[in-house]
């Protein structure tokens, strides 16, 4: 595991992390996150919570499979839990496509996300040209390769790590999603999880900087709508409609 990555699998280590989080500045986003699991949604489960702290860019992999609800109920020395942080409207949390993450957190742990910024929506809103150019959403893979301000070598390395991880969990590549629940976690899976959050700060800076004040407001409103929809009874976590942009 990389030196800038820490695995959190005990309440004590989680409490220390929470103290670190509470000391971070709130004037700009400091928390970037993603989740991995088996069929990540209300019908599946959460295995790992990836959290990048900016600007140090240290990445913490919180083991939800082992800690379960303890991961969200354990307080730091100031009494604040991870659930408190995730539900705080004044602490910004940044992710890429919040929908299924929100669905899973709400369904399994009763966490109602607030203070969310969604990079996928920022990218879609930042496109120039006719309205039709925003018809389809891009995934993280395309955003990294097209827009991340990193070298071609870094993009190639990022893609190689993602491909090695996918070979272990993707059924169409001969993998099994249950690898996310195998302990100890394979190094390839740890590296895969790191890659999902590693460049989120750079993407957020890139897309947010392209938006006008009006579009920033639209992105904020649509992000809140995504969270509300993901918590509704009729939410479809794997529907084809999820590929469409919201501003058609």
What features would you describe in this structure?
It is built from eleven helices and six strands. The protein has helices at residues 11-22, 64-67, 70-73, 82-87, 99-109, 119-126, 140-147, 152-169, 187-198, 200-208, 213-230; strands at 5-8, 31-38, 45-53, 58-63, 93-95, 116-118. 44% of the residues lie in helices and 13% in strands. Helix 5 (99-109) runs parallel beside helix 11 (213-230) and helix 6 packs parallel to helix 10. By secondary structure, the protein is of the alpha/beta class. A six-stranded mixed beta sheet has the order 1-4-3-2-5-6, sandwiched between helices.
What's this, in brief?
The protein is α/β, with parallel strands linked by helices. It has eleven helices and six strands. Helix 6 runs parallel beside helix 10 and helix 8 crosses helix 9.
């Amino acid at each position: 595991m990389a030196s800038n990555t820490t695995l959190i699998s005990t309440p004590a280590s989680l409490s220390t992390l929470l103290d670190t989080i509470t000391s971070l500045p709130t004037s700009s986003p400091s928390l970037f996150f993603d989740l991995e699991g088996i069929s990540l949604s209300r019908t599946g489960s959460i295995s790992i919570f990836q959290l990048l702290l900016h600007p140090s860019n240290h990445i913490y992999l919180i083991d939800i499979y082992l800690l379960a609800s303890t991961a969200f109920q354990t307080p730091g020395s100031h009494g604040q839990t991870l659930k408190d942080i995730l539900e705080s409207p004044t602490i910004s949390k940044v992710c890429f496509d919040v929908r299924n993450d929100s669905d899973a957190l709400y369904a399994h742990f009763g966490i109602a996300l607030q203070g969310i910024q969604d990079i996928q929506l920022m990218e879609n809103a930042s496109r120039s040209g006719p309205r039709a150019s925003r018809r389809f959403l891009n995934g993280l893979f395309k955003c990294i390769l097209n827009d991340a301000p990193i070298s071609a070598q870094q993009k190639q390395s990022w893609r190689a790590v993602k491909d090695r991880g996918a070979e272990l969990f993707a059924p169409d590549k001969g993998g099994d999603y249950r690898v996310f629940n195998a302990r100890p976690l394979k190094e390839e899976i740890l590296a895969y999880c790191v890659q999902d959050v590693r460049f989120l700060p750079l993407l957020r800076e890139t897309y947010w900087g392209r938006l006008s004040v009006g579009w920033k407001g639209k992105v904020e409103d649509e992000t809140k709508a995504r969270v509300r929809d993901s918590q509704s009874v009729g939410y479809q976590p794997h529907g084809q409609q999820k590929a469409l942009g919201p501003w058609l």
